[in-house]
Every structure is written in C-alpha cells, then in structure tokens.
Amino acid sequence: MASNTQAPAALDVIAVLHALADPVRLDIVRQLRESDTAIACGRFDTRVAKSTLSHHFKTLREAGIIATHRDGGQALNTLRTAELEASFPGLLGAIFRQAQP
User: Which pick of 3, 56, 65, 69 has the fewest CB atoms within 10 Å?
Assistant: First the structure.
C-alpha cells in the first residue's frame, strides 16, 4: 500500500460541521460508518458525477473526517472514527440520530 493522504494535525469543529452539512457528504460518511472495511471511491452508492464525488472526498479529507490510501489502482476510504471521537465525543452519533427519517 502507498502512503495515506495527509489529514490535518488537529480537527476543527467548524470544518467538520461544514463538511457534514452537505447531504452527499453525510451519506458518504454514513456508508463508511456502516462498513466494516475501507470503501473504494467508485463503490459508493451515490448519484453524483465522478468529478463532483471527487470534490466531496477532498472536502471530507481536508476536514479530517476520512482518510484515503491507495492500494494498487484503487483509492480506499476509511472514516477516522477514533480521531473524531477523541476530538468531538458523540458528535457523529448525535448527527446520525438527528438525520434519521
């Protein structure tokens, strides 16, 4: 595996909340949260164009919510659950409880 994409040294609550305010990004995070393994960029269940999806991944990475690493020709994404919980305990759980229909 190649090196990970750099995450910010410290998570910023404003950047995290901004990133999670978009429904597409929130759904990406939900899918990662429900997965036991990393998910390749092309394997997400979403209806946005590839270029738009790339922008959403970049926003999530820059906010420190996800980490992306390359494995062969695939970019695999994982949720940075431990880092998010350490910085903002209970935040993801609270957001997803409120986002439920």
Answer: 3
